[in-house]
Design goal:
Elements lengths: L3 H11 L14 H16 L12 E7 L3 E9 L5 E9 L6 E6 L20 H14 L5 H7 L2 E6 L14 H11 L4 H19 L5 E6 L1 H12 L3 E7 L5 H4 L26 H5 L7 E6 L7 H17 L6 E6 L8 H14 L1
Parallel strand pairs: 4-5, 4-6, 6-7, 7-8, 8-9
Antiparallel strand pairs: 1-2, 2-3, 3-5
């Protein structure tokens, strides 16, 4: 008699990702991109929001010696207004622009504050500094980018910061509520991130933007690039793997809770994670992983990197793909990693 574990293993073996580039019967890359993006769209289970006015409102403006800080509130969907931070370098634009996407980390009281110093709220500053010290060598990544001349937008994902904070155990209930309504928590976050990229591009006079993120923010970055051509370059730090290689005992993917923010039911029957990211090819993309990162086994990272490399090679665009594993580093985005990302962005943008 089959046990649940044996059934799970059989289903896992059956995953062949038949819509992946090179496996799909589609041979024209543009046709494949359209089909693959449509398949992802189908599995988001959240309607497109393209006609919803952003209607931005600005508050809490302040100035540093290099950039202006503002809180911006806007509509990413027709359901809810979302708060974020906008950093604008001094001087005439348009500037190079970055949509900065925060991580999960099982810490919900700060979202955008993990990446942009909260000048508007002293009560969150201590927590934000502690987060930056733990993962980012004490830096606020958004402020570093603004000092380098980048227009930076960072928004709270559902459940974080001003959109929460929820408790860790609330995640599964929230996802279940969405599924019961025929919708998806992960799909909502994906839709919002794509809309945020469009808003930032509109501020930047229609020029493309870079999507940059760490951990869950990295997942959000390459997913956003797959969903919208408003993203012209992507830097994803510590979130890329093959699905089957990640699905091992003890991995967060199998625990529920946090995984629901990155779980699109049914999509793995067609596409693996690197297949979704490849929808953005041949635009410039950077992927970093820590060699000691316990969340992403080395074999899964290698499988993903090999698939990504093959896609960009097929487009004669290998120079636009930057893949790197950092020996001795775990699940972090430390200063030397940041500096390499910043230099890469300067080059590709």
């Amino acid at each position: 008699m089959a046990t649940p574990d044996s059934l799970y293993e059989d289903l896992k073996k059956d995953l062949g990702f038949p819509l992946a580039w090179g496996t799909s019967p589609l041979r024209d890359f543009r046709d494949w991109r359209r089909a693959a993006r449509a398949k992802v769209e189908e599995h988001l289970l959240v309607e497109r929001q393209d006609e919803t006015p952003y209607a931005p409102e600005y508050s809490d403006r302040a100035r540093t010696d290099a950039y202006t800080q503002e809180v911006v509130t806007l509509s990413l969907t027709r359901h809810q207004r979302v708060r974020g931070t906008l950093l604008t370098p001094h001087g005439p634009g348009p500037h190079r622009a970055v949509l900065l996407l925060h991580d999960h980390g099982a810490r919900f009281d700060i979202g955008k504050e993990k990446l942009v110093r909260p000048w508007y709220d002293d009560t969150r500053l201590a927590a934000a500094r502690a987060w930056a010290d733990t993962y980012f060598s004490g830096r606020f990544v958004g402020d570093e980018l603004a000092r380098r001349g980048y227009l930076v937008l960072c928004l709270d994902a559902p459940g974080w910061g001003d959109r929460g904070p929820i408790a860790y155990e609330d995640q599964q209930a929230l996802a279940s509520s969405f599924y019961n309504l025929g919708s998806s928590l992960a799909g909502l976050m994906a839709r919002e991130d794509a809309r945020a990229a469009g808003f930032l591009a509109s501020l930047n006079r229609g020029r493309g933007v870079a999507a940059v993120g760490f951990s869950m923010g990295a997942y959000r970055a390459w997913q956003t690039a797959a969903l919208t051509d408003a993203v012209s370059a992507t830097a994803a730090v510590c979130w890329m793997t093959g699905l089957k290689e990640m699905m091992v005992p003890g991995n967060n993917t199998l625990r529920g809770q946090s995984s629901y923010y990155m779980l699109h039911p049914g999509l793995p029957r067609f596409l693996d994670f690197p297949d979704v990211a490849s929808i953005a090819a041949p635009r410039p993309m950077l992927f970093f992983n820590g060699g000691l990162d316990p969340l992403f086994p080395a074999d899964g990272v290698q499988v993903a990197y090999d698939k990504l490399r093959a896609v960009w090679h097929s487009r004669h665009a290998e120079e636009r793909l930057h893949l790197k594993t950092w020996p001795g580093l775990g699940h972090v985005f430390v200063d030397r990693m940041q500096d390499e990302v910043f230099d890469w962005l300067d080059h590709v943008l």
